[in-house]
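To close the chapter, one final illustration. This time we ask the reader to focus less on the individual chains and more on the assembly as a whole: which components sit near each other, and how the overall shape emerges from the parts.
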Amino acid sequence: MCQLLGMNCNTPTDVTFSFAGFAQRGGRTDHHSDGWGIAFFEGLGLRHFVDHQPACESPVADLIRRYPIKSRNVIAHIRKATQGEIALQNCHPFVRELWGRYWVFAHNGDLQDFHPRLHANFRPVGSTDSERAFCWLMQEMWKSHAGVPSVKELTLTLRELVPSIAKHGRFNFLLSNGDALWAHCSTNLYYTERKHPFAHAQLTDDDLSIDFAQHTTPQDKVAVVVTAPLTVNEQWTQFQPGELKVFVDGSAA
Amino acid sequence: MCQLLGMNCNTPTDVTFSFAGFAQRGGRTDHHSDGWGIAFFEGLGLRHFVDHQPACESPVADLIRRYPIKSRNVIAHIRKATQGEIALQNCHPFVRELWGRYWVFAHNGDLQDFHPRLHANFRPVGSTDSERAFCWLMQEMWKSHAGVPSVKELTLTLRELVPSIAKHGRFNFLLSNGDALWAHCSTNLYYTERKHPFAHAQLTDDDLSIDFAQHTTPQDKVAVVVTAPLTVNEQWTQFQPGELKVFVDGSAA
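The assembled structure is written out below.
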């Protein structure tokens, strides 16, 4: 099993505070030490970092903690291998291009007997159930739309597609194309919306706190989605099993 | 115009020495300061770093210089924008997946009136002539083979495809799928093969030298391909205009 972290904002925001706590679970405060990864949209472009070292020890993760990359959509993942060896090609998030846009996907869970027919142009490079699920989702999205669909249209398509994967096991996932962040829960997923008036927050996994009021403007909105709450004094809302939510401009749409 | 750096080896090797000199051209010893990028194959997996900051100032480039990532195939690029704005989505190298493998491409040059029909599933995300050329190459490779071709077969296919792009202008490029490194020259490209007995090398662009004999075994073979020679005391062979070479296990095949 793995852990997920997603961020969706109305203005480019750095994820260093949330990532600092999250990365501790990659081998220090929790046992998710079989690799990690993070992807940041920057306009249409994407920064994608993966590493098979534990996030708490990785020099690349150290860079992310120190270098504030500002993004409106971020997806991060720390891995505890269930299917697929410990190798770079099995580290989430995965990236594909479709309709001239990058799509980023990370999964927490375990799918049993999931070997879909992949007859289009999305094939897994690694050997995880997660990348198979992503490739199948991309294939079916490609068959359902002629070009980049609106957020609303794609949400409807995902609601139709997801159950046929979710019936194979635990399928908590995050997906983004830079416009929005889609989050599906089958077992564990929480979110919080940070907005004016911003408050003080204290990490669960590290001795670190922040006064968001000092780093934001009153217009800023930031939604954070995570497998288990990252802070002790913010309100985290638990997803219902089977729930698919989409976050746009820092709010649940 | 831009600059290219490629490395192909028979054993995973770090590129820190060559990259240290190359990165200096990203704003310090030369004017290629409109972004940079590097991709490292690691087995089937890929580490891909891009940044729109000059390579000589980028914290990510600093990480690459200090963190020895070992790889058998590396492609790096520093950008001087000709077509396409300075933005992350226009930074090379570009990555796509085909037949369950990652493909990496970087281009140095300038293509005039090159707007090929992209009717398959490879579309540019950014606005460069280079990414259009990559998408067209991927499309035509996909049409020419049912699965991953052998290095020899793909070399034949590329020899057929490349002239129809190269007639539009300067088309120096590097391409890799992790098995081999393909390099095409239309104006400027050089390579050197480092092998036993290994010698001392002194960078052209930085006050840095290395005794490769201390960092290698007699079996190691490393080919380096670059827009302009990186060292003052190694033998660099210039490509002929129109020449396509493929490097496998650290040697020109």
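Chain A is about 20% helix and 35% strand. The domain at 3-252 of chain A is CATH 3.60.20.10 (Glutamine Phosphoribosylpyrophosphate, subunit 1, domain 1). With these observations in hand, you are ready for the problems at the end of the chapter.
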